[in-house]
Amino acid sequence: MSATNGTHDSKGRPVVVVTGMGIVTSLGRGREDNWKALTSGTSGIHTITRFPTDSLRTTIGGTVEFVDVEPFFCAPGLSETLANMAVAEAIEQSDVGARGDFPGPLFIAVPPVEMEWPQREELARSMNPDGPVDYGTLLAAARQGRPDLHRRFLFGSVAETLADRYGTKGSPISLSTACASGATAIQLGIEAIRRGEADAALSVGTDGSIHAEALIRFSLLSALSTQNDPPEGAAKPFAKNRDGFVMAEGAAALVLESLEHARARGARILGVLEGAGEQADSFHRTRSNPDGHAIIDCIQAALDDAGVTPEDVDYINAHGTGTPENDKMECLGVQTVFGDHAQAVPISSNKSMIGHTLTAAGAVEAVFSLMTIAEGRLPPTINYDVPDPAIPLDVVPNTARDAEVRRVLSNSFGFGGQNVSLVLAAEPA
């Protein structure tokens, strides 16, 4: 085990703990609503009504319906709103930075998208009907005619807003490592605390980018499920009849602290971030290298960083997107690293219920992993009606299961071969 009874792990590094968590997904706002829906097998996937979908092959998504959005400006604005909701809940639970003075840096995963081009052109021409529609014109038009939108054109606007609101220290870091981004934000927080650069860090993943342009782009990559009816049955991780992932929105935030800092202030410790591993293969824009070496090495690196073995892992929170390729490669990685233990350890995908929250997914799943440890209940993989004999794993099919869980491996495998795995554990003795 990595953690010792002291404040440093077996490698001499500060033990990193979580003292606050916040989450919002299509299942609801906050930890309680999300956990109740998740463990009851409820789906947050539904027909999209935010914009017309009549001519699209995919017409469903895990949109957050209880937040008002501007349909064509949703990506930065909604991402900021969702992030703020998650951070507020995490800060309240941890009681660090509640007065706008968070004692560490901000690492935030944000989607690399802005508003759609027809609306950009409309905005520019409203200020200069006969002029060119280039980036400079857009900035000038937004600055003069829509100052509320001006920040949306500037890189890092979501991070800057949150940094100002919560008083994080240093320059906020915005990052994008595809579908591994949320886990990368956590990894950067872990590393900052281990290096002694901070006593605390705020790690956030957020994504509110379901709009027509994004939906079409993913559809052109043949990545999305087209089984639109019924919407809640579309996401089928690990099932033989899976046909793609379902786009979704959400955000999660975690307050990270060194164990020493948390104990000194009497904080309630929600779990330990024992290890993080990352690996990239740069093989293809969407597919992993067929030999699976990057996924295998990523999982192994996380276990090595934590100082644990596969037998020490009680549950795997799968990346589990529901695409034919990804689920097969994740199975290969787990089987290779875990060996004979692969069939004994349960592995499930919450994307079967909330869809794929993209940039936010790694952070969302870290929160669910810690709640799995705290509640002793494994979220199911729903829509698992046609087992795939090529994936002989215990996927916790369709119904949640009670279990004693001390340690979780949480996988995040992104497009472009960008992979991060985290090892999360219960509070040390």
UniProtKB/TrEMBL annotation:
> Which GO terms are recorded in the biological process aspect for this UniProt protein?
fatty acid biosynthetic process
Could you state one GO cellular component term attached to this entry? Answer: cytosol
Provide the leader sequence positions: none
Organism domain of life:
Bacteria
Which pathway does the record list? Answer: Lipid metabolism; fatty acid biosynthesis
State a single Gene Ontology molecular function: 3-oxoacyl-[acyl-carrier-protein] synthase activity
E.C. designation(s): 2.3.1.179
Question: Which EC class does it fall in?
Answer: transferase
Q: Which Pfam families match?
A: ketoacyl-synt, Ketoacyl-synt_C
Which residues does the UniProt record annotate as the domain Ketosynthase family 3 (KS3)? 13-426
Supply the InterPro entries for this chain.
Beta-ketoacyl_synthase (IPR000794), Ketoacyl_synth_AS (IPR018201), Ketoacyl_synth_C (IPR014031), Ketoacyl_synth_N (IPR014030), PKS_Beta-ketoAc_synthase_dom (IPR020841), Thiolase-like (IPR016039)
Its keywords, alphabetically, are: Acyltransferase, Transferase
Family according to the record: Belongs to the thiolase-like superfamily. Beta-ketoacyl-ACP synthases family.
Name of this chain's protein: Beta-ketoacyl-ACP synthase
According to its UniProt entry, this protein's organism is: Microbaculum marinisediminis
Organism lineage reads as: Bacteria, Pseudomonadati, Pseudomonadota, Alphaproteobacteria, Hyphomicrobiales
